[in-house]
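Input/output pair, single chain:
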Amino acid sequence: MSILSDKTEHRAIQIIARSLKILEKLPPDVRMSKSDDFELSLAKNMLKSIIENDPLSIDISSPNARR
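Output:
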């Protein structure tokens, strides 16, 4: 359970960014059902949204992503 506040902590954004990087590395030849693929796409988009809405966003494309 999280503690709600006015802004998201930097360490939470870092964990979300790491999670997104792992999901992006999912090999394209992995078999998934249509509904699971849809849900995974939604999850990735939601995680990206959290990062993009952070005032000091992290560049998730760089290997050493920092604020």
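The two ends are 25 Å apart (CA to CA). The mean pLDDT is 85.
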